[in-house]
């Protein structure tokens, strides 16, 4: 159930979006240690966004998971997702923030119920 929401101020074409979704799914699954079948990635392009007072390419992410994250894992996730964004969209890693949420099972719904 790890869910990664990514927002960028750049337009994202379908081919690049597909590559980012595939790469991010594999990365989140591998680093957190949960099956790819549980991972959800959302990619939102062309979002009005300013970072450090400019509208140069930037991105923001939020990763929500029931366990599997923590200081050492978060650092790996941050650098890996930043690398994907830099490779696919040329967003410098210094223009990317990511927030991590470790939620308890009753606070995440799936299949008409909670975990």
Automatic annotation (TrEMBL):
GO molecular function: cytokine activity; dopachrome isomerase activity; phenylpyruvate tautomerase activity
Compartments it resides in: Secreted
Signal peptide: none
Catalytic activity field: L-dopachrome = 5,6-dihydroxyindole-2-carboxylate; 3-phenylpyruvate = enol-phenylpyruvate
Principal localisation: secreted
Swiss-Prot/TrEMBL keywords: Cytokine, Isomerase, Secreted
Superkingdom as given in the UniProt entry: Eukaryota
Enzyme class, UniProt record, top EC level: isomerase
Gene3D superfamilies given in the database record: Macrophage Migration Inhibitory Factor (3.30.429.10)
EC number(s) from the headed UniProt entry: 5.3.2.1, 5.3.3.12
GO cellular component, one term: extracellular space
Pfam families registered for this protein in UniProt: MIF
Annotated family: Belongs to the MIF family.
Protein name: L-dopachrome isomerase
Taxonomic lineage: Eukaryota, Viridiplantae, Streptophyta, Embryophyta, Tracheophyta
């Amino acid at each position: 159930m790890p869910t990664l929401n990514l927002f960028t101020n750049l337009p994202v074409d379908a081919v690049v979006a597909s590559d980012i979704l595939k790469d991010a799914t594999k990365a989140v699954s591998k680093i957190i240690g949960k099956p790819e079948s549980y991972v959800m990635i959302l990619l939102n392009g062309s979002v009005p966004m300013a970072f450090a007072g400019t509208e140069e390419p930037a991105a923001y992410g939020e990763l929500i998971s029931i366990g599997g994250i923590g200081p050492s894992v978060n650092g790996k996730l941050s650098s890996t997702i930043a690398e994907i964004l830099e490779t696919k969209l040329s967003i410098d890693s210094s223009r990317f923030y990511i927030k991590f949420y470790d939620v308890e099972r009753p606070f995440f719904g799936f299949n008409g119920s909670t975990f």
